[in-house]
Automatic annotation (TrEMBL):
This is Adenylate kinase. GO terms for molecular function: AMP kinase activity; ATP binding. Its EC number is 2.7.4.3. The gene is adk. It comes from Stolbur-It phytoplasma. GO terms for cellular component: cytoplasm. It is found in: Cytoplasm. Transmembrane segments: none annotated. InterPro entries: Adenylat/UMP-CMP_kin (IPR000850), P-loop_NTPase (IPR027417). Pfam families: ADK. Belongs to the adenylate kinase family. Its main location: cytoplasm. Keywords: ATP-binding, Kinase, Nucleotide biosynthesis, Nucleotide-binding, Transferase.
Amino acid sequence: MILILLGPPGIGKGTQAAFLSDLLKMHHVATGDIFRKNLKKKPN
């Protein structure tokens, strides 16, 4: 199962994702965190 939560900043997507991942025993992937981490990487 894949769930995607969309909405404007500050609406609680991360909170709901954490709740649902615990409830449904699923892995939570925060794409915004991955994106920001990659922005900080220096080019090779």
